[in-house]
Every structure is written in structure tokens, then in C-alpha cells.
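Render this sequence as a predicted structure.
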Amino acid sequence: MSDMNVKDRAYLWLQLADNASVGKKRRLIEYVGGIESLYNGFPDHAKEVIDTLGESGFAKLSITRDDNYIDKKIEELRKAGVAIVSEESENYPPLLRDISDAPIAIFAKGNLNALKSTDTLGVVGSRTPSRYGKSVTENFVREIVHADITIVSGLARGIDTVAHRSAIGEDKVTVAVVANGLDRCYPPENHSLMDSICSNGAVISEYPLGAIPYPHRFPERNRIISGMSRGILITEAGRKSGSLITLRYAVEENRNVYIVPGNVDSPKSAGSNEALRELQGAMVTEPNHILADYGVKERDARPPQMKLDVLEERIMEFVKSEDRHFDEIIEFSGIGVSSLVALLSKLELLGLIKKLSGNYYGK
């Protein structure tokens, strides 16, 4: 038999029953007087289990309440480098304990100490962000992590990926919450990012190894992102963005909400702008607006670290040498009007150049 203690074996056993809701699991634990009582006294608690989980739930727990089966699952976790973290563990995210439907246990990979912080900020948004959304996310995260605030996100495409990479780029801690087992990665192209997160931070899930990221699991995942975060930052979100579900959870759990205003003509910002209109006081336009709520003294803006391509560098130097009219820059760059507008907007957003009166640009 594995040397895992009885209580952790019990939590693992019950967490493997991923067809039972958190509420039912909690009612069952309370019904029989504790999780060890349920584990050690099974199947003497048949009536209580059937009353709470039904016949099928009792059947599944009966099959899995086997020392050899549990030992096999423990070995699978060990080989995958995954730990079971129960709600009684010192490594269980402290803020997550406070929400009404907190999981009784989570699976975690990486540095478990990263889960202990209460200075946490969830960062979520569009899976197909604009250049503006990416730049805003990078700039906010890079500033915020230097106040030792842990970034929490969902490892999804788009804003989540930008948030995690920005924290890692500053050699700071980030935690990813996923909607699948930790022996797989979704989306698959983020596998290397998942590994990078684990080197300093952690990746967690309430689902056992092998679990597939079914659609209904993403909203469930979002409640954990919100639950373990002191505040939620939305940098860009469309009307149907899943990040608005995270926002709803944050409001319900009385967490701080921060929304960056977006272009009113862009559908990518329609959801976050609408939420901003409904939630007065949620608007943020610079990292210091968030840091103040975390008790951090206002910080001077750090110089942007975004890497520029060759053309962006040339145009920046051209404009910095002396004030240049837009038409001069077009002639110098040789690119189209729309491309140049986007490029100049990026340099302006990064604080590298300024737009002056008369359609001039300078430093």
C-alpha cells in the first residue's frame, strides 16, 4: 500500500468521483461525520451515500473503494508529477476556501508554495485579442508582478496566454487553472508554456488525470480562477467571452473587479465595455489603480520591455530624431496608411513616441 496518509487517500478517492457535484460531496462528508469516517466505514454508510449520490454514485464509489485501485491512481499521479491538495492542506489556495462551492481537493503540478499567496490577481479576456488587448495585458502584468502579486489565469489562447507569458518574462510567479486532467494540455500549443509555468508557479485542476476539457468544465474552471484571486482584471472581452463568467463569479464572491476600457467600435471590447458601464468604479487605465487596492505604494511606470521588430525600431528612431508629420513617416516607411496607424498606435501606447498636434509625431 502507498505511504499516502489515510485522509489524503480519502480525498483522492472522493475527488475521483468527478460525476458528483461539490455540493453533494460536502453534504455526504457532513452526513457521515467526516471524510475519514466515510472512507474507513464504507460501505457501512450505504444509505447515506445512496441518499446523497444515488444508486449510480454508490456503485462507482464501491468500485473505486479498493486499496489496489487507489494505489494505482497514486502511482499515476507520482509518474505525472502531480499532487493531490485537499482543502485541509497548507498548500490549498487560502482565498479559494472562502467561496461557496470550493472543490474539496485539487490536483496540482509545479511549485505548490505558489498556491499559498493571498496577493493574487486573475487576468482573463478574449481568446482572439487585438493588438491593443495584447499590449495592455503585457503592460499591466509586467508592472503588477513586480509588486509580488501572483497572476492567475486559465492557460487558454489569447489574453490568458499573454498574461502567463508576461509574468514568466519578468521571472515572476503565475498560476494556471485548467479544465482538464494535468496529464494533458489544452490548447495543445501551450504545452511548453505549461512547463514554463510549473518551473516557478503551478498548474491546477479539480479534475483527475485523463479528464477531457468538455465545454461545461470551462465555466467550472472560471469559478476557481475567481475564487483564488483577490481581484479580477479583464483587459479585453467580447459579448460572448467566457471571461464575463469569471467576472460574474467575482462579483458574486465580492472580489475586486478591474476592467480596461476598449475601443467602442471594436466587437472584441463590446463585452468588457458593457460590463464596465454596468459596474461603476471598475474602470482601470493604469496598473497603479490596481496596486492601490493591494496596499502597494504608487510605482513609477517601468519602461516597456516589448521587443520591437526592425521596421518599428527604424520608425521610432526616425520620429525621435525630430518631430515628423504622418506623411513623412509614410514616405520613410513605405507601408500603407492602415498599417502605419496601427504601428504608431503601438509605439504611442508603449510610451515610446507621442502624437502631437497637426498630425505630427515626436518623443
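Summary. Residues 46-64 form the longest helix (19 residues). The chain has a mean pLDDT of 90.
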